[in-house]
Amino acid sequence: MKPVKINPVARRFLIWSCRHYFKSEAFSCVRNLSEAQKVMICMPASIDRFAIAKEVLSLFADAFKGKTIFVFLPFLRTDGYLSTLPGFEIIFPQKEDLKTFSIPGEKFIQKVREYQFDISLDLDLEDTFFNRYIVLKCGIPIRIGPHRKDSYPFYNIQLTISTGKSDSREEYEGMAKVLNSLLAENRTSKSNPI
Questions:
Q1: Is the pTM of this model over 0.85?
Q2: Where are the alpha helices (DSSP H) in the chain?
Q3: How far apart, in whole angstroms, are the C-alpha atoms of residue 169 and residue 59?
Q4: Which of 22, 121, 185, 194 is the most exposed place for a label (fewest CB within 10 A)?
Q5: Mean pLDDT, all residues of the chain
Q6: Is the Cα dihedral 72, 73, 76, 79 positive or negative?
Q7: Nearest of 135, 3, 147, 157 to residue 70 by alpha carbon
């Protein structure tokens, strides 16, 4: 597997331009979560974190129960990993999908956009930026990811998980717990309207 990493200089420019030219829209979190049908879970680009995220993927699938889940792999040459994620449709870029500096091309952005995802969840805790850029450019209405310095405008729901340890598994389990609480509360309010 070869992680896709956007060139650091291009990354700074893209962060700057997204912050200055992105127009955020107001949305109803409760309504959008309840009406959501398709979820894209973006896996981390670090091989070690990918292995841990893959182990706990079922926790996130449980949080998004009743929704169609797709898994986005920020890798080129993913052959060995496609068959090991049963039950999920896999999306990943090909070498020809990337432009200079490993920036995703418009054809790839359009291909992902055609899925019409309602929610994205980014599990990349090391911030390689590729996932964040994809979900913003694809116009996914609810973009969930870990809180970090450059999270806006890429995520409109940011999760701060502080376990006091640097163990990714605990961080992912914490994220899944927060999502389960948020979505369970949403399911309860949907079934018991006031």
A1: no
A2: 8-21, 29-35, 47-55, 57-63, 79-82, 106-113, 130-137, 168-191
A3: 11
A4: 194
A5: 80
A6: negative
A7: 135
